[in-house]
From TrEMBL:
Species per Swiss-Prot/TrEMBL record: Anthropogastromicrobium aceti
CDD domains membership: nitrilase (cd07197)
Family the UniProt entry places it in: Belongs to the carbon-nitrogen hydrolase superfamily. NIT1/NIT2 family.
Pfam families: CN_hydrolase
Record domain CN hydrolase: where: 1-269
GO molecular function terms attached to this record: hydrolase activity
The keyword Hydrolase belongs to this UniProt entry's keyword annotation: yes
Entry keyword set: Hydrolase
Protein name as it appears in the record: Carbon-nitrogen hydrolase family protein
Amino acid sequence: MKIALIQTKQNELYNFPGTRTFDTEEVLQLRHEYMEEVFRMAEEAAKEGANLIATTEVVNYSGHFSKIKVPYADLYQEMGQAQEETSNEKNNKFDYDVTTNEETRFAAIASRYGVMILAGLARKENGKLYNSTVFWGRDGRIKDVYHKIHLAGDESEIFTPGQTLHTIDTEFGHVGNAVCWDMQFPETARNLAKMGTDLIVCPTWGWEWIYGPARAYENGIFVAAAMAVPYWMPIEDLRRPSMVISPDGKILVEGPTDKAAIVYCEIDDIHCKQSREFRLNTPLN
């Protein structure tokens, strides 16, 4: 299995220490530029033969809500409906050259290259905004949508927390979802492991190396994190770049600390039932 982690370099929308405010036109332009880079990197990874592509957290971010001059939720359309209508078209064909919503663009790449994609997206459903992951199968159809359960900082002022963990049955094994702060809690990885997960994929803005290997080792499973490089500084201190970790806690690959990159990792077999069951059957002290 060839995994490709899309490590992006954030733009000014992600300048959390900054004080600048943005009008709607500026937000949409900066978001468009960022998304175009994500799509370009995803397509490059697909051409390189990746089986699973993962992005960082909320790649369609619109900047901190306190710096936006319009109601924040208005910057996100209702997601899902247009995607569902498109997916049900005859022969499930997508026109990659037509710019529609973000979900259709990801679906087009998945369908065109026969690749699985897990993207971190802000997703508006039934009037509520979620910090989500969306998983497309090789046919370009949505197989799973997960909403981040553990919201960090002031996220809860704009996002609604999710309620359930998910694991997806793929041809390579079971792939579980977690987003950033979810992985701070050992119970997240443990419960995913109990569900039979072989590989946890975590889109994030704050990947900390100290818990990545721990979650992999204590559950006997693979962990992959797609991290973003901050706008105003390189990745440093406890935070580390995108990486893939083996069930014994070893870092298999790691991205650069200061720039965008596609981080590839080839794993012969992600099935880890034996190591997972060994860890789950070990009494906890």
